[in-house]
Specification:
Shape: elongated
Number of helices: 18
Order of helices and strands: HEEHEEEEEEHHHHHHHHHHHHEEEHHEHH
Largest sheet: 4 strands, mixed
Helix content: 40-55%
Strand order of the largest sheet: 9-10-11-12
Distance between the termini: 72 Å
Number of strands: 12
């Protein structure tokens, strides 16, 4: 409030500059204990300084001229013919004394060229300092993520940095990140930028001043904002649409027409990010090898820093390179001109990554793929066994519907717990096709052997789980094949009065789970905070086993230890 009294007392001396849109800005603007004076002439500025000096002396306060700066321009050029004084001292000119305010450097160049060069130097020096630490690559990547990157985000917010400059900074950063993470220079990267908008500011002076955010010729913030607003208005007209297996009313969409200013601003930013993501994805789709992940029928796999801490450097390299098909497989080595033939060393057939991890006849005969399958199956069986032996409350008898009279409101509980299949019966038994051949119960005679079999004789319920560790692009094909394999058996058991569920489950060989995995856990009752750790556990096991198969790809013999490891 004290600063407002000082500012208002000096506003009567002069008016502020007039913008191109016809709006006149205030001559005095304050932030905390800092004050900015902007006028048309230096004479008007001296009038305001004199008034401020009188008001400050009356309030028993004092300015600090040495920490202040002045800038006078004449016909677009900086001049030092005039000087500004306050409290008997001359205010230093910004020409010889640049100053930093709120993280931004101000100098006599009247542009951000020097600041951008300073930012580029900060990026290079920071990356070199991190690179010289001698730490493992993942620790260097963490230092960049939480040490250097936050320092770069703030200058990129208010400096007028062109898209070309941002792309050059991104290339420099990607060069170091590739080396730290152990991926080759051909590893694809994504350019990220920022945006700004003043059209929805709460201050009328700023909103109507016609201020434009300059981002270069490649990308315009104003055009991007207009396109985003147009898409959001069109989305209001189209309404809510369902995607995939979604049902009506399962998703909530925020409406553009009913949102406040803060909500609209967030919606515009999210929509612009979505448009940029669509542009990046369209470029990735054009890549034959590194864009193959866009055709996968799996869910995303999230890696937190705690997960990366527990991963060995070789595992990180395998995961990144295998997703983008940059591992030195026989086919890639031949394509890169490093070998004469692209043949697999085991079976003398073309050995791409899919062949090494899934399609080699010799590896299949030796039981390598079976070993990986059993490793994942063992983890899945352990998860379901823990769920089976949990103590459960007995199922309630009849449930009644409480009807509500017209005009009255019914009582609804805040949380409704929907139990899974296992909650619907007692005394479950489980058999797993591990170590020894699975024997089907005496319910029916069959030669089929699902990987996991759960049944309750008391409740006449049976669950069959069939696990597959396929190539990520073939998850849907594996699902349909396994589902058709047990469809007839399930029908025969249902004819005997049993309730039967068949769950084909797919975990990609590189650790990316299919949608069927999530659905299976939810149907059985593994929900909430327990489901994601369970899926992550299967993903890690599949990815770890595949990486081990990759490192042993040239070994002619395959022999397991006594514990099956």
């Amino acid at each position: 409030m004290g600063m407002n009294l000082i500012i208002k007392a000096a506003d009567r001396e002069s008016r502020g500059p007039k913008t191109s849109s016809g709006v006149r800005l205030p001559p005095n603007r304050g932030f905390m204990d800092d004050l900015t004076v902007t006028t048309t002439t230096h004479v008007q500025a001296q009038w305001i300084l004199t008034a401020l000096e009188e008001t400050v002396e009356w309030a028993r306060m004092k300015f600090k001229p040495r920490k202040s700066r002045s800038l006078i321009t004449k016909r677009g050029r900086v001049t030092e013919k005039f000087s500004m004084r306050i409290q008997g001292e001359e205010i230093p000119s910004i020409v010889n004394n640049p100053i930093k305010c709120l993280g931004k450097w101000f100098d006599a160049s009247l542009n951000d060229s020097n600041n951008i060069r300073r930012l580029q130097g900060q990026v290079k020096e920071g990356l070199r300092a991190i690179d010289k630490t001698g730490l493992p690559g993942k620790f260097k990547a963490w230092l960049f993520q939480y040490g250097l990157l936050p320092r770069l985000t703030w200058p990129l917010t208010f400096y007028e940095v062109t898209t070309t400059t941002v792309e050059a900074l991104e290339r420099t950063i990607s060069k170091f990140l590739r080396r730290w993470l152990g991926v080759p220079p051909s590893f694809t990267s994504v350019v990220q930028g920022g945006l700004g908008k003043t059209g929805d500011s709460k201050d009328d002076k700023i909103r109507l001043a016609g201020i434009e955010t300059r981002t270069g010729r490649k990308w315009s913030a104003g055009n991007a904002v207009e396109a985003a607003e147009s898409r959001l208005r069109h989305q209001d007209i189209v309404g809510t649409t369902c995607v995939g297996h979604q049902g009506l009313g399962t998703s909530h969409v925020q409406r553009w027409g009913t949102s406040d200013k803060a909500g609209k601003r967030k919606m515009v930013q999210d929509n612009i990010r979505k448009m940029e993501e669509e542009i990046r994805k369209s470029k990735v789709v054009e890549m034959g090898a590194q864009g193959a992940w866009t055709r996968w029928g799996t869910t995303d796999r999230r890696l937190s820093w705690s997960d990366i801490w527990r991963m060995e450097p070789c595992r990180i390299q395998f995961l990144l390179r295998s997703v983008y098909d940059l591992l030195p497989s026989p086919t890639n080595l031949h394509r890169w001109g490093l070998t004469e033939t692209p043949d697999c060393p085991l079976c003398n057939r073309p050995g791409n990554l899919a062949h090494v991890l899934l399609g080699c006849i010799v590896a299949l005969t030796q039981g390598r793929y079976r070993w990986r399958h059993d490793k994942v199956l063992r983890e899945l069986a352990d998860i379901l066994e823990r769920e089976r032996i949990k103590k459960r409350k007995p199922a309630k008898g009849c449930t009644f519907i409480n009807f509500v009279r017209g005009g009255e409101r019914g009582h609804t509980s805040s949380t409704v717990h929907q139990g899974g299949i296992i909650d619907g019966a007692q005394n479950w038994e489980m058999r797993v096709d591990l170590d020894r051949r699975l024997v089907f119960p005496d319910i029916i005679q069959t030669n089929l052997r699902p990987d996991i079999l759960l049944w309750s004789t008391e409740g006449k319920k049976m669950v069959m789980v069939e696990l597959t560790v396929p190539w990520e692009e073939r998850c849907e094909e594996a699902f349909e094949r396994k589902k058709g394999k047990y469809e007839e058996l399930a029908g025969d058991i249902r004819a005997l009065g049993w309730s039967v569920w068949v769950f084909p489950v797919e975990i990609g060989c590189r650790g990316f789970p299919a949608h069927s995995t999530w659905r299976m856990f939810a149907a059985l009752g593994v929900k909430g905070i327990d489901r994601r750790p369970a899926v992550d556990r299967l993903s890690r096991t599949a990815e770890k086993s595949s990486s081990w198969l990759w490192w042993r790809r040239q070994d002619m013999s395959w022999k397991l230890s006594t514990d099956g490891q």
